[in-house]
Specification:
The complex is a heterodimer.
Chain A (H helix, E strand, L loop, with lengths): L30 H6 L6 H9 L8 H6 L16 H14 L22 E4 L1 H6 L1 H11 L3 E3 L5 H9 L5 H8 L7 E4 L2 H10 L5 E4 H6 L2 H5 L5 E4 L2 H6 L1 H15 L2 E2 L27 H9 L6 E4 L2 H10 L4 E3 H4 L3
Parallel strand pairs in A: 1-2, 1-3, 3-4, 5-6, 5-7, 7-8
Helix pairs in contact in A: 14-15
Chain B lengths: L2 H4 L41 H10 L8 H4 L16 E4 L3 H14 L3 E4 L15 E4 L6 E5 L4 E5 L4 H10 L2 E3 L10 H7 L6 H4 L6 E7 L5 E5 L4 H7 L8 E11 L4 E7 L2 H13 L5 E8 L2 E8 L2 H10 L9 H13 L5 H18 L5 E2 L2 E2 L2 H13 L8 E4 L1 H18 L3 E9 L19 E9 L8 H18 L14 H20 L12
Parallel strand pairs in B: 1-3, 2-3
Antiparallel strand pairs in B: 4-5, 5-9, 6-9, 7-8, 7-9, 10-12, 11-12, 11-16, 13-14, 15-17, 16-17
Helix pairs in contact in B: 2-4, 9-14, 14-15
Classes of the chains: A alpha/beta, B alpha+beta.
């Protein structure tokens, strides 16, 4: 593994950001745009300013404002990988000391993963919730196991544009190469692992994996508000939209999809819980907007960060997707 | 100097003071047009310090950072480039009023921008202040009983639609591009495929709040400040800045879309006119791929209207369904193998474009759920680019065929592939509202418009090529006495040619009366 995580680099076939035509369509689903209506703080604004001659250091506030929800990405008619481009900008700024860096130590619990053909990377919050983690493994079926390394430090490094230590990356990736199926709770980590691991390893988001279980689908109600994990969905909308559209039609539930069928985020993420990294996106305003005009009686989330966001700002019952099958 | 070079027609000779010579670059561009400098002077930065200081004293800070200004360097057209001296994101009507008061006092030009979807540089600042209205994007009130919405004018139609849809409502009529702002659209007209029924988007405005060029705040409607109401709507930003609007809305319904294919443009246009005249469909318009592949679309909000169409009008249409058209077109090209390339192009368009017009996730039970999202995405994907060239003509019914057929020939001359987008536009408001607008003075009942949209297909064309193309289209308008959707910026030289001195001078006098320093969107029209 190279020190520069390849995800940062331009992907084959990706459109060069300099080809941006400034249409502004990418802003339509952007939570930063929706709350602040300041073009300069959006991907479109950063890119247009850059094309117009602005330097990276002129874009610090804009780079910081982004919550990497990826909702701009599926909207771009030019096919620009906006999420990657923003991470790349953060990396450039981070290298020059222009962005704050969260200091996080890896949290690994060494254990033998050899028995599992399906590994789940649950993230730090889900892993700490042993009851829920156990439910997830049960729903996913036999030979499923929790990965002992939560990869939280890698996720934060990705979000903040920090470089990772080679040895750390190698230690994280090595056991994953031995599995046949990898299920990832965090969308950004999912996007990265999917781009890095060989095609022989099936990498799936946690929400979609759980939805393959009929008991989970049967547990969803028309009065549920279903909160899709945004980062994996938005980066892969063309591939995932049919699944969620079918689910919406099958269950009648509300979803965090806008008119463009981009997934709207709560604005909550682990990264922004660190001091000095707080986003200008108000989670409260996002939660209010997500539920406006939607007569939901329960919130169902795929990602634990969203659980906390709704728990803070609504009085509705909130469950993780893995819990609906039992209710 | 070499003598032969001296005698070249583009030789630029020194001008005599006080005399504007023929344009040395395109000497035929404005023949016979009296040029006049209507603005008091070319703005050179005078008054800027006082302007910004006055505003700063009121807590309004202009952003002069390069990274903020370069965002506004061009518009959707990508042909005109300019930089503002500073940028301000409008947040309240009061703030806009303060800005205009100070701008008038210090004679600083203010260029207003919403979505920036102009194509002739109308929203590009050449110095002065860029006033970005997007900071005023709130939905203020949705009234399902009266079917009206009050919103701030910087809001994009997409954001308005998002809010309305939560209440099972929808806007009535908006451009097929969701990054257009409500205020910008009301200022220029706004055309939808339901314009044959509802007129321009501007005609859906029941009331507007404006800031005049001198900084006065006015509520305007058909019964209050009516002069301002009819001047600011379709007024190309010359008479005031719209900060809020009350619009008609409707209950949301998905729509059923049908396509009819024609091998001949004129026949399709005749059928379009028939459908518009007889109010046969809720939505209708023409989109062409080639002369041999013309698509007339009809769409319906309700099953009843759809059934009525099939009962009464369907048999009168001379277009074919997809299968019938494919068979006929296949036979046509089978007998003309030398046109294989053209046939392949059509096949490719069918393969690429048609699925984009009915993506499964925007469909429900065979109906399109989000028509503007679908069309907006397709517009940017297939016609968008770093340059967008969309000259247009708006005509009376009598001139429609000749104007568009002539425009079609111009397109062929300049580009291998292009699309014509034709719609009808019903006259809704009082005539004076349309004096300098997309409704030509000789149109009765319904006007007809056409956008000529070349497919640039990643090719790089020179600005001269693109401008020459536009000029030839606009020249048709001058020749036939039509009107245009677009007026300002680089095509303002056509305004006097089309409307004549008397009408333009009347509007110029009104402009000078309400904007003595000529600071609001200066150089766009006059």
């Amino acid at each position: 593994m190279k020190k520069n995580i390849p995800y940062y680099q331009s992907q084959p076939g990706a459109t060069d950001p300099s080809q941006c035509n400034g249409c502004g369509v990418c802003m339509l689903s952007c939570p930063v745009w929706q709350q602040h209506h300041t073009k300069a703080l959006t991907y479109c604004g950063r890119n247009r300013a850059s094309i117009g001659g602005a330097r990276d250091e002129d874009l610090v506030a804009s780079a910081r404002a982004c919550i990497l929800c990826g909702s701009c990405e599926p909207l771009c008619p030019m096919g620009i990988r906006t999420q990657q481009a923003t991470i790349s900008l953060r990396r450039n700024l981070s290298v020059r000391g222009l962005l704050l860096k969260p200091a996080i130590q890896p949290d690994t619990q060494i254990s033998d993963m050899a028995d599992y053909s399906r590994l789940v990377i649950p993230g730090r919050i889900l892993r700490a919730n042993t009851s829920l983690a156990s439910s997830i493994l049960t729903l996913l079926g036999q030979r499923s196991g929790l990965y002992s390394d939560d990869g939280y430090d890698i996720l934060l490094a990705l979000e903040s544009g920090q470089e990772m230590n080679d040895e750390r990356i190698e230690n994280f990736m090595a056991p994953l190469m031995k599995t046949t199926e990898l299920i990832v709770a965090d969308g950004l980590l999912f996007n990265v692992l999917r781009s890095l691991l060989p095609k022989s390893i099936a990498v799936r988001p946690l929400g979609q994996s759980l939805l393959t279980n009929p008991k989970v689908r049967a547990g969803l109600k028309p009065t549920d508000f279903y909160m899709i994990e945004t980062r994996a969905y938005n980066a892969n909308r063309r591939e995932f939209v049919a699944l969620y559209d079918a689910l919406r039609q099958e269950t009648g539930c509300f979803m965090n999809l806008d008119l463009q069928r981009a997934a709207t985020p709560t604005g909550a993420s682990s990264y922004q819980r660190h001091r000095g990294l707080e986003s200008i996106v108000s989670v409260e305003a996002q939660v209010k907007w997500l539920l406006e005009g939607r007569a939901a009686k329960r919130i169902v989330v795929e990602h634990p960060d969203d659980y906390e966001a709704f728990a803070t700002y609504t009085k509705l019952p909130i469950v993780h997707l893995a819990e609906v099958a039992k209710i | 100097m070499n003598n032969s070079l001296q005698q070249k027609p583009f030789d630029i000779k020194p001008a005599k003071p006080g005399v504007i010579p023929p344009c040395p670059v395109a000497p035929d561009a404005l023949i016979g047009i009296p040029r006049r400098q209507t603005n008091p002077s070319c703005w050179e930065g005078d008054g800027w310090q006082g302007f910004t200081a006055d505003l700063a004293a009121r807590g309004i800070v202009i952003d002069e950072l390069k990274s903020a200004r370069t965002l506004y360097v061009t518009d959707a057209g990508g042909m005109a480039y300019g930089l503002p001296r500073g940028v301000l994101i409008a947040r309240t009507t009061g703030m806009v009023a303060e800005v205009m008061g100070a701008a008038q006092k210090h004679r600083v030009p203010v260029t207003v921008r919403g979505g920036g979807l102009t194509t002739e540089g109308e929203t590009v600042s050449f110095g002065g202040l860029q006033l970005d209205m997007c900071g005023m994007s709130r939905v203020l009130d949705i009234n399902a009983d009266t079917l009206t919405v009050r919103c701030e004018a910087g809001i994009y139609w997409h954001s308005l639609a998002e809010s309305l849809r939560r209440h099972k409502l929808d806007y009535l009529s908006a451009p097929l591009n969701m990054t257009a702002s409500v205020g910008g659209t009301l200022g220029v007209g706004g055309i939808d495929i339901n314009s044959p029924r509802f007129g321009c988007s501007a005609d859906q405005a029941l009331a507007i709040k404006i800031v005049t060029p001198t900084g006065e705040i006015l509520e305007c409607s058909g019964s209050e400040n009516t002069w301002w109401f009819n001047r600011v709507l379709l007024g190309y930003g010359q008479f005031g800045i719209i900060t809020e609007a009350t619009l008609r809305i409707r209950p949301f319904t998905p729509l059923t879309m049908h396509y009819f294919y024609y091998g001949d443009l004129r026949t399709a246009m005749e059928d379009l006119v028939m459908l518009c005249d007889e109010d046969a469909a809720d939505y209708t318009g023409i989109l062409t791929m080639l002369d041999r592949a013309v698509n007339l679309l009809v769409a319906f909000d309700s099953d009843e209207r759809e059934q009525a169409f099939f009962k009464k009008w369907h048999s009168r249409l001379r277009g074919f369904g997809e299968l019938g058209f494919a068979l006929r077109t296949g036979m046509h090209y089978a007998l003309r193998p030398w046109k294989l390339r053209e046939a392949l192009y059509l096949l490719d368009r069918k393969r690429a474009l048609l699925p984009e017009l009915q993506p499964a996730h925007h469909m429900s039970n065979g109906k399109i759920v989000d028509r503007t999202v679908v069309f907006s995405q397709a517009v940017w994907k297939f016609w968008g680019g770093r340059q967008m060239v969309i000259p247009d003509l708006a005509t009376s019914r009598e001139k429609f065929f000749e104007a568009i057929l002539r425009g079609n020939e111009v397109c062929k001359k300049y580009f291998p592939h292009y699309t014509l987008y034709c719609v009808g536009i019903k006259l809704i408001g009082p005539r004076e509202r349309y004096e300098l607008s997309c409704i030509p003075p000789d149109a009765e009942g319904i006007a007809y418009g056409c956008e000529f949209e070349p497919m640039l297909e990643g090719h790089t064309y020179s600005r001269d090529h693109l401008q020459s193309f536009k000029n030839e289209i606009y020249d048709i308008g001058v020749d036939l006495g039509t009107s245009y959707y677009r007026f300002g910026g680089m095509m303002k030289g056509y305004i006097r040619r089309v409307f004549g001195d008397e009408l333009v001078d009347k509007h110029l006098a009104m402009k000078q009366n309400v904007d003595p320093a000529m600071v609001l969107n200066r150089d766009v029209i006059f």
